[in-house]
Amino acid sequence: MKRLFFCLAILASSVRAIAINMAHARRFEETGTASTTITKRQDDWDVERNELTSVAGVGCKPITVIFARGTIELGNVGELVGPPFFNDLDDLIGADNIAVQGVDYAATIAGYLIGGDPGGAQTTADLLNQAASNCPDTQIVLSGYSQGAMEVHLGEAMVSEEVAAQIAAVVVFGDPFKGRPFPNVDSSKVMTYCFNDDFICDDLPVVDTYHLEYVVDTPAAATFVQGLVSY
């Protein structure tokens, strides 16, 4: 078991850098060279987003995104999927219409191997309750990548039907619980992105490059969300 932990950690760490470079390369191709300005907004690659829980906050926005990062990713939204997804949402919906909150949890390999970190699930549920209570008119977008998708499944199942009614969309990437329904969210509001060759999506503890390439799906994911929200 310790050897499995070690192999997973080494593999994930080594190929994560490749995926991050791919994500930044895609953004560079979209926005052009430094001397060519073709976009009005600078992409945000921050790995920490706390626009729901921070003292200053950003006030209630039409849309609140709650995102759970993958195993061993940095910050509370990670690097591989969260930031590019938020940037795509900003491009389509407008950054002024969106608040982003990451799920603070350990995101360890051990948590993944037991079927999701219980603390992360509780934090996800707490954030859903907080968003619904503090901003009763906001439309919640619940999203997660890899182990974060597990936390999304587990956390959503812990909230009341009234709170779940505020969830406008659920988007999961590289989901180890692929095919498992969200009890209080209609399937028409759920989108799952899983490569056929991603072993994690088959609930196998093997991280390959497919599992690290979901940046290619974030534009489609943002378009899916755009079709389900108003702003």
UniProtKB/TrEMBL annotation:
- Indicate the enzyme's highest-level EC class: hydrolase
Keyword Transmembrane helix present in the record's keywords: the answer is: no
Identify the species of origin.
Answer: Letharia lupina
* Record has Hydrolase as a keyword: yes
Principal location listed in the UniProt entry: secreted
Per the record, what are the reactions this protein catalyses?
Answer: cutin + H2O = cutin monomers
Spell out the protein name for this chain.
Answer: Cutinase
| Keywords linked to the UniProt accession | Disulfide bond, Hydrolase, Secreted, Serine esterase, Signal
PANTHER family per the record?
A: CUTINASE, CUTINASE 2-RELATED
Stored Gene3D superfamilies: alpha/beta hydrolase (3.40.50.1820)
Q: Which GO terms describe its molecular function?
A: cutinase activity
Q: Where is the active site?
A: S146 (nucleophile), D198, H211 (proton donor/acceptor)
Provide the Gene Ontology terms for cellular component: extracellular region
Annotated signal sequence is 1-17
Which cysteines does the record link by disulfide bonds? C60-C135, C194-C201
